[in-house]
Specification:
Distance between the termini: 30 Å
Number of helices: 23
Radius of gyration: 29 Å
Oligomer: single chain
Structural class: alpha+beta
Shape: elongated
Length: 677
């Protein structure tokens, strides 16, 4: 998986805690509206709202640790969230000023100031990512019987506790260095006047994902470098008389944020909503409206910024640049307004009474211009580069916890709407929504629970492109649809949840399968040769104890009974799918062949035990590169069968397959079969 794909995965996971932030911002905003002067000091109801919202905002870091760990876990299990929480507690406790003083044997007042900011978003995200990776790798580990209680998911919080000790030790030396570098940088750019103000604002936004913007803020707002921009500004007339503030200058590191937070980011939210797919717009509207209101009214921008900073980093860089430009313009023109909390409507209203505020009203037309700029630039960039902002993708696993699950290999809007249309027809073909009781998918097939399997129309299913229909019993049906099975299943779940769908009649008109067919009498040539993905003994597909594979409904190929633990790529290509239980993967070769490697039969029921993935979805791999690792002793004892099919799921696109091996094969070395064109 490349870095962009991984960042998008982090961004999707962040949607879990980010969805909570608008509620916090609204609570705080209501409190400030009730008591705009003393902020709850003279009104109990205002204090109640402000404290309620602040409880969430002040603990944003731990929310990120828990939410990212949960959202990036392979099975969305609560144990992953607990792991993130445990890891955050251990790391932040060990890196707290008191603990650092104790560990390093120094007085508390000599502990670097950086450690007072250790509970920040960056640390939360870092802990969440590490926790998720540890959970995904070790949640299936089986310990000896004497320690079996601590096996699997119970083991992971224990492991993360020890790992965070090492991370804390590293942070004790790295964190103060990074913090001090940023403070020094801030002290230099303050000498550049209005240009410096713009540079500061650019880095202020750019550093928010890692939580280090506090270092710059301390330089410009809290007298670390003698600027004292906020206290003097709020001091008003008294600060002017004392010579500690200059009209038209003091506040220049704040004023330009108002056009961005009150107008620019809501414009970005509108662009993201307009670029969302039709089926996702309702969800996106709720998130974007709440985030836009929070940004405008209170100046709390995290709900919006974290919704796109990881899934579309280029947009966040554009946002940082535009923020720098806005602050530069306001500082140059001496349009000054300041804030004590953030650059929202409440603080702008309060700023109008401050004698240091000059031409503050000009920030409103500047903001309207930036609203248009943000909307146009964001909308153009999203569509031009097909950026995966919220709502641009269908969920691929049916999990609604984060709103969206971006498939980084997805194509155009047309392809997504085609999937939705196809899924709707499949719902009709299986007897309509009234006949459906459960929808799931394996790597190549829809696994359906129905009230009456006799209502499933085999003929129409095959016209839609299905390779076969398998009735396991009166209430269980499997439809072989190829490697898009999970996408189709997810779309089917959304369709069934959205309203009733009628059953297809016998003479219904459905789109026929459109698949390039090899001409039967055309000369045959080798298109691509595959090597064995695992060491073992070759068996024919007819010997596979599964009707879908044995009948070649999933695709043509061979099977192997494995004798070694490592599963490798059978050809150069891209791992487009690894099932979340790690028992199977789909490889698209560089020449376009779609290869399904399915280790064992019904091994999905083992819920990942006995399997460990060595690469992630989206990885570019070479023939012979390890993909999975198996615990063969466990699998041979618990799986229904370890005969493992290796099939070409789009074999209808080719003239045929020629087996090249019998008996024993060696992973990554023995030529298994040729694909002919």
């Amino acid at each position: 998986m490349n870095i962009l794909s991984y960042l998008q995965k982090v961004g999707r996971a962040l949607m879990v805690p980010v969805a909570v932030l608008p509620a916090a911002a609204i609570l705080v905003g209501i409190g400030y509206w009730i008591d705009p002067v003393s902020w709850g000091g003279s009104n109990a109801l205002a204090a109640l709202f402000i404290k309620s919202g602040s409880a969430i905002i002040d603990n944003m870091a731990v929310l990120f640790a828990v939410g990212v760990a949960y959202g990036m876990s392979k099975d969305k299990d609560g144990a992953a969230a607990l792991t993130g929480f445990v890891g955050f507690l251990v790391l932040t406790t060990l890196c707290s000023p008191a603990a650092v003083a104790m560990i390093q044997k120094i007085p508390v007042d000599q502990v670097p100031a950086a450690f007072s900011k250790i509970q920040n978003q960056f640390v939360g995200i870092l802990v969440g990512i590490i926790s998720a990776e540890i959970y995904n790798r070790y949640s299936g580990v089986e310990l000896p019987k004497a320690l079996s209680f601590f096996s699997g998911r119970r083991l992971v919080p224990i492991l993360i506790s020890f790992l965070m000790i090492l991370v804390a030790f590293i942070m004790m030396y790295i964190w103060p260095l990074v913090f001090s570098v940023l403070v020094s940088f801030g002290e230099h750019i303050q000498k550049l006047g209005s240009v410096g103000a713009g540079i500061y604002a650019f880095f202020n936004r750019l550093l928010i994902p890692v939580g280090l913007h506090h270092a710059l803020n301390s330089v410009f707002w809290f007298d670390v470098a003698g600027i004292n921009d906020i206290p003097n500004f709020l001091g008003g007339q008294q600060s002017i008389e004392a010579g500690k503030a200059v009209v038209g200058v003091t506040g220049r590191y704040q004023a330009g944020f108002f056009p961005i937070m009150m107008f620019g980011l809501p414009g970005a939210a509108l662009a993201i909503y307009h670029c969302a797919r039709p089926e996702n717009k309702a969800k996106v509207l709720g998130i974007m409206m709440a985030g836009a209101f929070a940004a405008f009214f209170t100046g709390i921008t995290e709900p919006l910024e974290f919704s796109f900073m990881f899934v579309a980093p280029v947009l966040y860089v554009i946002h940082a640049v535009l923020t720098g430009i806005s602050v530069f313009i306001a500082a140059s023109m001496q349009w000054i307004a300041g804030f004590g909390f953030s650059a929202g409507f409440v603080d702008m209203f309060l700023s109008t009474r401050n004698p240091l505020a000059t031409h503050w009203y000009m920030l409103i037309p500047q903001g309207l211009v930036f609203f248009v700029i943000y909307y146009v630039v964001f909308r153009f960039t999203i569509r031009k580069f097909n950026l995966m902002t919220p709502g641009r993708e269908l969920a691929v696993d049916g999990d609604e916890s984060d709103g969206y699950d971006v498939n980084t290999s997805a194509g155009t809007d047309h392809e997504e709407s085609e999937t939705t249309s196809l899924a709707r027809r499949y719902v009709s073909v299986i007897g309509g929504s009234e006949n459906v009781t459960g929808i799931d998918a394996c790597i190549t097939r829809l696994r359906l629970n129905v009230k009456d399997s006799s209502l499933v129309n085999d003929t129409l299913a095959k016209r839609l492109g299905a390779s076969g229909v398998i009735r396991l019993n009166k209430e269980s049906v499997q439809i072989i649809v190829g490697t898009r099975a999970e996408l189709i299943a997810s779309a089917m779940r959304n369709i069934v949840a959205s309203g009733p769908i009628a059953a297809a009649s016998a003479n219904s008109s459905v789109a026929p399968k459109v698949t390039p067919q090899a001409v039967a009498n055309a000369p045959k040539a080798v298109f691509q040769t595959l090597v064995a993905p695992v060491t073992g003994d070759v068996v024919t597909l007819e010997q596979v104890p599964d009707e879908a594979f044995a009948s070649k409904a999933v695709g043509d190929g061979v099977a192997i009974r494995p004798t070694e633990k490592t599963v490798v790529a059978p050809a150069d290509g891209t791992v487009v799918k690894i099932f979340n239980t790690n028992h199977a993967f789909c490889l698209e070769t560089v020449k376009g062949a779609e290869i399904v490697v399915h280790m064992g039969i019904d091994t999905v029921a083992l819920k990942g035990l006995g399997f460990k993935r060595l690469v992630e979805e989206g990885a570019e791999v070479k023939a012979g590169q390890p993909i999975l690792e198996m615990d063969l002793e466990y699998l041979n004892a618990n799986a229904r069968s370890m005969i493992s099919p290796v099939v070409v799921s789009n074999s209808d696109d080719y003239a045929g397959l020629t087996a090249l091996a019998t008996g024993k094969v060696i992973a990554g070395q023995t030529k298994l079969f040729d694909i002919q064109k």
